[in-house]
Design a protein that fits this description.
By secondary structure, this protein is mainly alpha-helical. 56% of the residues lie in helices and 2% in strands. It has eight helices and two strands. The chain has helices spanning 19-25, 30-36, 53-65, 77-85, 91-106, 118-127, 131-156, 161-168; strands at 74-75, 110-111. The protein has a two-stranded parallel ribbon. Helix 3 packs across helix 5 and helix 7 crosses helix 8 (161-168). The longest helix is centred in the C-terminal third of the chain and has 26 residues, at 131-156. The protein starts with 18 loop residues before the first helix and ends with a helix.
Length: 171
C-alpha cells in the first residue's frame, strides 16, 4: 500500500518582475503565479531606499567580519555617502557582496572610499552628472585599480615586496 509522510515545505521566491503580468504574457506559468500570489510582498528597489543603506552597511559589515582576518569596525562617512548615492542595480545581493569584498580585502579597521570595489567606481562614472564628478571618479578608479593590481602581484610573489616592485618596475 501507500505510505503518507507528513511534509512541511516553505517556498521563498523573488522576482524583479510583476508575476501576474508575466503570466498574462505567457512568460511565467499561471499556476505558479497563483500559488505565489497570496503570499507576495512588494519591496521597492534599494535605489529608492537610500536612507536604508547606512543601516544595511552596518549589518553586512557585521556579517562579513565573521569571515575576515582583520575585523572592520567602521566605514568612513564619505564612503557611506558614496555608497548611498550608488543605484545598486543588483539590490541587496550586490550590496552584501560589495561589503564582503571590501571587508575581506581591507586589512584595516576603517573602510574608506579607496576600498570601494572597482566595478562600482566604474559604474559611478557613467552616472556622473558633471565633468568634475567624472574626473573625481576616474582618479578613484585609477587609484583603486593600482591598489588591486599591486595586491594581485603581491599574491603571486607570495608577499615578496622586492619581487613585486621589480615586476611592477618600481623601486
Amino acid at each position: 500500500g501507500q505510505a503518507f509522510i507528513p511534509l512541511d515545505v516553505r517556498v521563498i521566491a523573488s522576482s524583479d518582475q510583476d508575476l501576474a503580468q508575466a503570466a498574462d504574457k505567457g512568460t511565467f506559468r499561471r499556476e505558479m503565479s497563483q500559488f505565489l500570489s497570496p503570499l507576495s510582498l512588494a519591496l521597492t528597489p534599494l535605489r529608492e531606499r537610500w536612507e536604508d543603506i547606512p543601516g544595511l552597511l552596518d549589518y553586512f559589515l557585521k556579517v562579513a567580519n565573521q569571515k575576515a582576518k582583520v575585523p572592520v569596525k567602521t566605514i568612513q562617512r564619505e564612503a557611506v555617502q558614496f555608497l548611498a548615492r550608488y543605484p545598486w542595480p543588483g539590490n541587496l545581493r550586490e550590496l552584501e557582496n560589495s561589503v564582503e569584498m571590501m571587508v575581506l580585502f581591507a586589512g584595516k579597521e576603517t573602510l574608506t572610499i579607496e576600498d570601494i570595489p572597482l566595478d562600482i567606481l566604474v559604474k559611478q562614472i557613467d552616472l556622473a552628472k558633471t565633468k568634475e564628478e567624472a574626473k573625481l571618479s576616474l582618479k578613484r578608479v585609477r587609484r583603486q585599480f593600482e591598489r588591486q593590481y599591486i595586491r594581485k602581484v603581491l599574491e603571486r610573489t607570495r608577499g615578496n615586496q622586492t619581487r613585486t616592485a621589480a615586476t611592477l618596475g618600481l623601486h
